[in-house]
Design goal:
alpha/beta; Rossmann fold; Beta-Lactamase; 6-stranded mixed beta sheet; 6-stranded antiparallel beta sheet; about 35% helix
Amino acid sequence: MKFSKETTNRRKRVVVVDDSRTMQAALEQIFSLRLGFDVVGLASDAQSAAELIRKMRPDLVTIDLCMPYIDGRKLLEMIADLTDVRKVIVSGQAFDSPAIAASLEAAGADACIHKKDLSQDPAKFCSRIQAILARSKPRTALRGLPVAAERSLPDESVASVMRPGAFPIPIDEQARLALLRRIGLASETPDEQLDLLVAHLGATTDFPTAIITFIDRDRQWLKATHNMARCAMPRHLGFCNWTLCAGETFVVANAATDARFAGNALVTCEGGIRTYVGQPIVYDGTNLGAICLIDAKPRVVTSEVVINLRSMARIAAEIIKMRVPPLAVAA
């Protein structure tokens, strides 16, 4: 770690956090030579980076996602209270799926920029940085969706109180969470059978992305994925909250024009969701999870797609049922 004293002029100040010396040098060069910034600090791990950022209070910090011991996502949490510092993830991994980029932005990142832009399109990189700093104030975590959105769902399927994240809660929420814990599905542990199921679903419906998710109290877990990175994300980002409450096929034809989702980071990020089709996975009479189809462009959802999705939801439920000893449900 190294740092310099603040210069007397008010050039923009940046701290670079990356465990690669090559990337540090590349970022230092583009900030100092092309953008005219003062690079006031370099750090290669999250702990020293957090201390440096608090000491220097730069205008902007760039953060690598993959670092030893503590990753970039955790660093965002460590400096979340520094709302005057713009935080930019510079990483290729953040673009593995819209879900990862959206969860990072929900955690406090002002933007995610691909590392390849440094070499392939430095002008684009500089333009993104300038646009971030031109914003009137730092971005906050994802803004809440309007509570009025609840009215689009059947009254009996939604609890009377909406949580602060403004997503609907199933009326049997506590029983659903207890069953989810007993079965042990809320994790990122790969599941080969369910992965094969969503791969088949994507291929037969011509949707680019298919997933199976399970939602616990605070997080949505992508348990099985086709063309999307397996991950967990904050619960308030999940479209599947609405699927669980709808109790039937839930369709969003164009999320960008839907008041419930237009401000969702999964929609506003690059390559974000436009069309979503979800079907509850019903286990022991409970909407335990959801199987979903996603596209980054608006599209018409045909009856054939819905029929296929419902069939796959029943198969997913049977796969889960065959693995669980009867006492696990009866307990």
